[in-house]
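Propose amino acids for all 205 sites.
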């Protein structure tokens, strides 16, 4: 039987890391930063924060703990999109570039929000010529993989449909010749789910 699996990135696709970043900053320093640019791709550009070093940087990093990774809010429309795909019989797996020690926290976060996801695969980060998620996706061999970070589409098996989410555009890495790595482009996960259900899956089922 063919796989009915769809692999989904977490931050920026399922979960709103940028909103959670402001919460982490508030936990570390007691003040929620002002929003500077809601169209910014990176959290540090979105919020009115400064680059830190030394003790202050250590304090911020300490806020990205088990509790932080257990309580990120959902991206708008993401839960409904996943429920739509799940109802249609697709198995959803989260493949996330997060440290493996937070894998269980990420799964707990998703399930508490109501995502129909029973498995998280943590791959850690990487910025090389091949996506740090590629090896996990080769083993999983889903029909499709959805991410919002173009470099993480590098080196994927060509049989996997690579879908790219284009969220906040300012400072986005989702530009240039490597856009050809994506087989389809979508505004958010809800747009992907609608397209996949109408026509996308027919190429892979």
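Proposal:
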């Amino acid at each position: 039987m063919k796989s009915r699996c769809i692999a989904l990135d977490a931050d920026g696709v399922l979960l709103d890391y940028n909103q959670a970043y402001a919460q982490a900053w508030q936990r570390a320093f007691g003040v929620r930063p002002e929003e500077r640019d809601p169209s910014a791709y990176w959290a540090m550009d979105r919020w009115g924060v400064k680059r830190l070093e030394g003790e202050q940087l250590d304090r911020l990093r300490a806020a990205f703990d088990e509790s932080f990774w257990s309580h990120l809010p959902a991206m708008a429309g993401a839960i409904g999109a996943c429920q739509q795909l799940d109802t249609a019989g697709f198995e959803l797996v989260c493949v996330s570039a997060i440290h493996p020690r937070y894998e269980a926290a990420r799964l707990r976060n998703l399930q508490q929000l109501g995502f129909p996801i029973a498995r998280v695969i943590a791959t850690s980060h990487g910025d090389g010529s091949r996506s740090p998620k590629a090896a996990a996706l080769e083993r999983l061999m889903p029909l499709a993989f959805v991410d919002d970070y173009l470099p993480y589409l590098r080196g994927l098996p060509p049989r996997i449909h690579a879908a790219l989410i284009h969220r906040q555009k300012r400072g986005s890495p989702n530009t240039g010749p490597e856009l050809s790595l994506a087989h389809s482009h979508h505004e958010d996960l809800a747009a992907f789910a609608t397209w996949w259900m109408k026509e996308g899956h027919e190429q892979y089922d």
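The CA atoms of residues 95 and 121 lie 5 Å apart. Residues 17-70 form one domain.
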